[in-house]
Amino acid sequence: MSAWLKDETTLRTGTAPHHGVDIFALLRDQSGPQATQVTAAGAAWLAGATPYPRSTLAQWEERPTAPGVLPCGSAFDVVNVPALFGRRMLEQLWAEGPGSGPVATHRGRMLLFAAPGTAQRLPSLLAWEEWGSTGSTGSEGSEGCGEQRGTVPPLLCHGTGDAVTVPPLTCAASDSGPRWVVAPDTRGPWLPGPDVLLWACVRVSRSMSSRAVHSIFPGADQDANVYDVSRRR
After folding, report:
1. Is the dihedral of CA 125, 127, 131, 134 positive or negative?
2. 114, β-bridge pairs
3. Tens of pLDDT along 148-198?
4. DSSP structure class, residue 155
5. Own/partner pairs for 22-26, CB < 8 Å, 24+ apart?
6. What is the SS3 assignment for 165?
7. 17: which strand partners?
8. Which of 20, 77, 163, 216 makes an SS bond possible with 119, Cβ 3.0 to 4.6 Å?
9. Digitized pLDDT (tens) for each residue of the chain, 233 residues in all
10. Where are the alpha helices (H) located in 63-169, listed in sequence order?
11. Do 99 and 233 form a contact (C-beta atoms < 8 A)?
């Protein structure tokens, strides 16, 4: 994980005194898997997705254990997938790909934070990939390729004009609400684009159709421990 920023006061310049908790001290004092902890820099990045970052940070200082709602389309898009498929996508991204950006779970779904514009491009890329691999059109290269075509479950892509619920900045591992699997930890986290997520979707789809996938994930309470976030771009 990235080191704590030394200029935490820059996030609060010009704000009035408040009577809530010191969110930066609270985040510093957390214990538990580092991959699931939001840092001060990560909180600043999340708040930057809103029109009024300072007001958002002030609200989080007052209620650090409450989920938030953030708009998509400027700082990030979100690809919302079924939990099992999302876990297998993460396996591919971390085992054979470039890693992932922030990832959260909510209501049996996995939210993969992606580069802005992904929500618009990924569905069309997936449609093209599925059409190109069916072998039913008779186009060159579609027959005799030896690859079994799987299926990709319906994805919910949230972009400009949409908003998503994000986990609290601080929450216990036993909380049943939204929680971070890979928490934001820098002011500018690397985010996968539509090409990277397309690759992960196709790899998982084909592997699920041809053989059982061996999961590298341990129990539900420990699933974030498998990620070496120092590899993240």
Report:
1. positive
2. 77
3. 566 888 899 999 999 999 999 887 655 678 999 999 999 999 999 999 999
4. P
5. 22/61, 23/57, 23/60, 23/61, 23/64, 23/169, 26/64, 26/169, 26/170
6. strand
7. none
8. 77
9. 332 223 333 333 333 344 444 544 544 454 444 578 899 999 999 999 999 999 999 999 999 889 999 999 999 999 999 999 999 999 999 999 999 999 999 999 999 999 999 999 999 998 887 633 433 333 333 333 344 566 888 899 999 999 999 999 887 655 678 999 999 999 999 999 999 999 999 999 888 876 544 444 444 444 444 455 555 55
10. 83-95, 118-132
11. yes
Q: Give CA–CA dist 206/213, Å, rounded.
A: 10
Place of tokens 């420990």: 222
**C-alpha torsion sign, points 12, 18, 23, 29:** positive
Residue 49 and residue 47: Cα distance in Å, rounded? 5
Quote the tokens at residue 210: 């041809």
* 211: CB partners within 8 A, 6+ apart: none
Tell whether pTM > 0.90.
no
- DSSP E strand boundaries for 32-135: 68-71, 77-82, 103-106, 109-114
Task: Please give the Cα distance from 113 to 41 (Å, whole number).
Answer: 16
